[in-house]
Amino acid sequence: DNMHTKGPAPQYHDGSNLRIGIVHARWNDTIIEPLVQGAKDKLLEAGVKESNIVVQTVPGAWELPIAVQRLYAASQVQSSSAGAGGSAGDLLGSSTADLASLSARSSVSTGPFDAIIAIGVLIKGETMHFEYITESVSHGLMRVSLDTGVPVIFGVLTVLNDEQAKARAGIIPGSHNHGEDWGLAAVEMSVKRKN
Ligand SMILES: O=c1[nH]c(NC[C@H](O)[C@H](O)[C@H](O)CO)c([N+](=O)[O-])c(=O)[nH]1
Predict the structure, then answer these.
(1) Residue of minimum CA distance from atom 14 in ligand 1
(2) ipTM over 0.90
(3) 8 A C-beta contact, residue 57 and residue 26
(4) How far apart are CA 16 and CA 195, in angstroms?
(5) pLDDT one-digit tens code per residue, 26-73
(6) Could you confirm whether 129 is annotated as catalytic?
(7) How far is Cα of residue 186 from the mean position of the Cα atoms in its chain?
(8) Are strands 115-123 and 20-25 parallel, antiparallel or unpaired?
C-alpha cells in the first residue's frame, strides 16, 4: 500500500551491543502479534541478541506509557545495584508502593535500555473513546521518551477499522508490516544515541 512508499528508506546499523525493550498491549492481539514479530525480526536481523530483547505486555494501549516508564525505572535500579538478579519483569511484578519508591530513586539518566518500542492497536469504535486514548497515549509516550532520554518508538496503530489495521500489520497479502519500521527505528535511534 502507498503507506510503504512514503516510509524512510531503511538504514542498516549494527545492533549487536544494543538492549531493546518491547512493551505491547493485548487488545486486538491478532494484529498485535504480527506487529511485534515484525519488530523483533528486524532487531534480530540487525544483530540484536535475543537475550537483549525484553518483552512486557499490558492490557491496552492506555497502559503503555506507565509500563514503558516503569520498565525504564526498573532497568535503572538493576543497573545501579549491579549484579541484582532477576529480570525487569520481577520488579514490575512488585507492589505499587515498591515501584513508586523504586522509580523515585531512579535518576533520569541513560538506563541499560537503548530504546523501547511501544506497540498497541487502537481501532475506532462508535464513541469518542478512541480519540481520548489516542491523544493521551501519544502525548504520554512522547513525554516518557523526553523525560528519560530513552527513545520510545511510537508503535501504536490508530485506525478506523479492522481492514486498515490488517493492512498495516502485513496481514493483507502484499501489505507492509509497520512493525518492521519500528524495529529499524529502534536500532537507528539507539546507535545514534551511543555515538
Ligand atoms: O489497546 C486498545 N485499548 C482499548 N481500550 C482499553 C484501554 O487501552 C485500557 O486498557 C482500558 O481503558 C483500561 O485502562 C481499545 N478500545 O477501547 O477500543 C483499543 O482499540 N485498543
Answers:
(1) 62
(2) yes
(3) yes
(4) 14
(5) 999 999 999 999 999 999 999 999 999 999 999 999 999 999 999 999
(6) yes
(7) 9
(8) parallel
